[in-house]
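Comment on the following before class.
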Amino acid sequence: MTEAGLVVNEFDPDNPPPLTKAERERLARLAGLRDEDIDYSDAPPADPDKWLTVEQAEALMKKSVKAAE
């Protein structure tokens, strides 16, 4: 823990931690689902005006990187 009370975790996407047995079982169950068996009834409708274009997303990422420097 840092002095400010902020916990910092590092994750290496090229070397992720191994999955637990429960995680492997859950992924196996999910992989076996057909698209039509997935219940989306509680998902809010997608508003196309809320989606970013690639250009907008890239601009936001560049702004975020500059702010972090």
Q: What stands out?
A: The mean pLDDT is 87. The two ends are 22 Å apart (CA to CA).
